[in-house]
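Minutes, methods subgroup
Present: GH (chair), OT, SY

1. OT presented the first of two proteins processed in the latest run. Sequence and structure tokens recorded below as shown on screen.
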Amino acid sequence: MNLNLIWLTPAKFEREWLLTLLASQGRSAKERDGSTSEMYDDEPLFIMNSVVKGYEEYFARYEAARIPYAVIHLSDEYYRDSNLFYDHDMCKFVIRNYFHPGLARMPKVATIGLGWRDGFAKEPVARIPWLEREITVSFAGNVHHELREQFIGAFRGVQPNAFHLTRDGFNSANGLPLPEYKALMANSKYVLCPIGHWNIDSFRIYEALEAGAVPIAFSITRTQPWFYWKALFKTEVIPFIQEASAQECYEALKRRQANPAAEAMEAERTQQFWEDAKRRWGV
């Protein structure tokens, strides 16, 4: 099945991830760069985020003209984007990449994980077997708020570790180049995945999973008072480490390390869980 993907947003951070999910379902995509000044009548699947100006008015034109369309709605991290078009008769479905319980209950809405950044899986790094990985816990990224400070601080005593910290914003020029970032994850047993800018979710979760590492993340926060991963993955059993606080995550890690055989089995379960999720999310 060929899909007509129209990129309304110029930012294609998730392109590789989305095309991977499409390919997993045996679907190919014809991609075009679009704008809200042009109309399409070939069952378009629009890819948009809040950067796209006037998208509500644009989709209203499709509703008025009775032209069917669908939307992949990206980057609504703060849940501030307008979603009035979700109720349009002509809007056949919406795929989001940030879970929200209210929006997820809408019959047309499905949610997928954020996935990895564009280019992350283009040249895969060979996965190192779990028992041969040299780093117990790692983190490479920006430390821009207190919760990240707390999270990293809780694990500083875990050895061997590898932390590459920056403090100058997203996509820092001082960050690890992508090949080194991937190699670090591929050689780590666990990757710290504290919250993004505000949302509990982050690209790092999925990049760690794709690299064969086990994420360590918050399960719930004050601003997102639901168990995010259980809701997103639609299961009560999440095999990676996720707890309500950094200290509880640290304690969960120590419990796993107390039984190396069981720890290795949990790592294997995490990888199977991830492969199952990718198959289920095929858009």
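2. SY then presented the second protein from the same run.
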Amino acid sequence: MFELVFDEVIVKQLQKAAKNQQVKDVLTRLLDRIEQSGPDAGELLDSKLFLYEMKSLRPPIRLYYKHNIHTNEIYVFEFEMKTSPEKQERTISRLKKTIRSQDSFL
């Protein structure tokens, strides 16, 4: 079992998502899978930063998280509705910058 840690962005997103039952159910399943399988639940995006992504097809959601090997915690950053590859790349780049700047904190 892995412990999930949520940053302030995902907390706000989850509060909004709770209003849509379908999105809420999908996110609950994704988070349960991460809690059970840890980093193996998603696809590795950056091996140096241990940044992962999980995808759902219906509705099309991407969920981003980081595995802290030392504490075995999973830091859940945010999710987004899949719209375009360009948006995905911008999000991943922004998350990488955030992780690099907070790396000593995480």
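Chair's summary of item 2: Residues 85-102 form the longest helix (18 residues).
Next meeting: continue with the remaining queue.
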